[in-house]
Amino acid sequence: MTRMPAHRILSFTDPRLGMRMAEARADDMATRAAMQILDDLLAATGDGLIAAPAIGLPVRCLALRRGAEVIHVLNPAIPAAGDFALNRAETSPLTGPIRRHVWRARQVTLTGTHPTGLPVHELLEGRMAVLAQQALDLLDNRAGFDWITPFHRAWVASSDPALRARAEAVNRALHLAPWQGDPGIPADTPLVALDRRQVQIRGDAGQPVALLDAGDPALPIDATDRRCLGILFTAPALRQVMILSRHRAALAVSLLTILPGITLHHPASGWPQRAMERMQLSAACRVTALRDPPPLPDGPDPKMDAIVMDGADDWLEGPEAAALMRQQARRLNGNGGIAVICCASASAMIEDLLQAVFPSVHVIDERQAGTLYLAFRSRPDLPAAHARALRLSNQLGRPGLVQPATGGWRILTKSGERRAP
C-alpha cells in the first residue's frame, strides 16, 4: 500500500506563505524537517520541484526529482536563464487550476548548496525550468501573488460548487483562447486573446463584440459596463436579468461569474452564443426576444429584476419604440426592478420615450461611461438602494463598485432637465 504524505502543498491564500524566509542550514532542524517532507511529497507525485515555503516551512531550500534521483538544494539561486517566451495558461501547485500568461525562461541554471556542503549546479529545461522559476518566485518575491485578483480569491473561497466550476471554466476558456496573429485561426473563432490580459469576444459571424479581462472577467473593462454593473447592485434582487444588446456581453459574463443563482435572458439574434458556450455559461442563459410577450401577473414565467438596453439599438428609433418600451416595463419586476439604457451621450428622444412609459426616471451623466438612464415602475428608495449596493460590493470584495453604483444620480424632470434626488 502506498503511504500517503502527511503534508500537502499550501494554497496561495494560506497566511504561512507570508512568513520571512530563513537561510537553510544542513544542521538546522527546520531545514532537515523540510527536506524529509519534500522527499515524501516528491515520492508521491513523481518528477517535480517543490520549495519548502510551499509546505508551510519558511526555509530557503527546495527539492527536485528526476526519475529515481532526488536533489536537495539549500539557498538556491538562478544565476543564468535563457530562451524566454510567454508561457501561456501557466498553472502552479499553489494556485491549482488558476491559469495565467507569464514570461518564463525555457532554460535556467539552478545553483545552491547540497546538504553535504558540495555545490549544486543543475541545468533545467522545459517544465522543470518553469517549476524552478515558480519556486524562486516563492522564495525571493514578497509580492509573488500580486497578480491574483478578486475574481481568483472569490473562486477559491466559494463554497458553491456551481460557482467554482463556472469560474474555472471561464478562466480556462480565456487562457486557452488562440492569440491574434496565431496561424490558422478560423474567422469565426469565438474568443481571441489580444494580449496577456485582454480577450475579445466575437459574435457567431466573427465580428468583435466586447472585451474581457482574462485575469478578472468579473470586472468589466468597458467603463459603461462597469458603471452598469454597479447600478445593478442597487436592485433588490438579481435572479432574472435581461440584456438586450450583444455589446453588453462582457456585462453578462461579469454577472454570471459573480452571482451563482442568476438566470441571464438575451435575444437570439446577434448574441455571441458560441463564446458563451466556450466559457460554459450558456446553461445559465435563456433566449428571450424583445417582442416576446411579458409574463402574466400570476403566470409561471418570472419577472425581470433588471433589463439592460443600448441606446444605439435600431428599435428605439422605430415606430414601435413606445409599444416595445411599454412591453419591457410590463416585463420588469415592479418591486424595485430597474431598466438601464446605456447611451453614448444624452438623448432627448430617449428621455421623452422613457418619461412617457415609466413614472420614475433617473439619469447619470459621466464622461467615460456616457449617459445612463435608470427607469423604474415605481419611485425607488434611493438610500435603501444605495445601501444594498454598498453591502453587495463589500460581500463580493468589490469596494471599487460603490462609487459607480451610488454616484451622480439625478432625477429626470423633463427632457434635458435634471435635479438632485
How would you summarize this macromolecular structure in one to three sentences?
The protein has two domains: 15-140, Peptide Deformylase, CATH 3.90.45.10; 159-419, 3-Layer(aba) Sandwich (Rossmann fold). Helices cover 29% and strands 28% of the residues.
Q: How is the secondary structure organized here?
A:
Elements: H1 29-45, E1 48-51, E2 61-66, E3 69-92, E4 96-113, E5 119-125, H2 126-140, H3 150-157, H4 161-176, E6 191-193, E7 198-202, E8 208-213, H5 223-232, E9 240-243, H6 249-258, E10 263-266, H7 273-278, E11 285-287, E12 306-310, H8 321-331, E13 338-343, H9 348-357, E14 360-366, E15 370-376, H10 382-395, H11 402-406, E16 410-414, E17 417-419
Parallel strand pairs: 9-10, 9-12, 10-11, 12-13
Antiparallel strand pairs: 1-2, 2-3, 3-4, 4-5, 6-7, 7-8, 13-15, 14-15, 14-16, 16-17
Helix pairs in contact: 3-4, 5-6, 8-9
**Helix count from the secondary structure assignment:** 11
Arithmetic mean of pLDDT: 92
Number of domains: 2
* General form: elongated
Whole-angstrom Rg: 27 Å
Q: Could you give the count of β-strands?
A: 17
| Helix content class | 25-40%
Show unreliable segments.
Answer: 1-5
User: Class of the largest domain, according to the CATH hierarchy?
Assistant: Alpha Beta
Largest sheet composition? 9 strands, mixed
Read across the widest sheet, the strand sequence of neighbours is 11-10-9-12-13-15-14-16-17
**How many angstroms does the end-to-end distance come to?**
72 Å
CATH topology of the largest domain: Rossmann fold
Pfam families: Pep_deformylase
Organism: Paracoccus nototheniae
Family: Belongs to the polypeptide deformylase family.
InterPro entries: Peptide_deformylase, Peptide_deformylase_sf
